[in-house]
Design goal:
78% helix, mainly alpha, 2 helices, 101 residues
């Protein structure tokens, strides 16, 4: 059985939004310092930079997409909570108006 506590959904939403803000700040800063720089002029060092430079945009693109999903999920919890409570209230009125006789 699924049990919903609609009053907890806005709290969860704000927690997720705070996590999103923190993670976004960290990844923005990390993106700049994660860009590889050549440690030396030898062939191996050059290849390392090329390999990591190719990986860098994919990693942060995927990370940013994940962060946008996190924010979208957090933002929908408050309307879901309100809808759930309204539906619960109207459903309760409907059930209480049914005659058992």
């Amino acid at each position: 059985m699924l049990e919903i506590s609609p009053e907890a959904l806005p709290v969860i939403s704000s927690t997720l939004q705070a996590a999103h803000m923190s993670l976004t700040t960290v990844t923005q800063g990390a993106s700049v310092i994660a860009m590889p720089m050549t440690p030396a002029t030898d062939h191996v060092s050059q290849e390392i930079v090329a390999a990591f430079a190719a990986f860098h945009p994919r990693f942060f693109t995927d990370t940013n997409q994940g962060l946008s999903y996190l924010l979208a999920g957090a933002q929908v919890l408050v309307p879901v909570s309100e809808s759930y409570q309204a539906g619960d209230a109207s459903g309760g009125q409907q059930v209480s108006s049914v005659s058992l006789a």
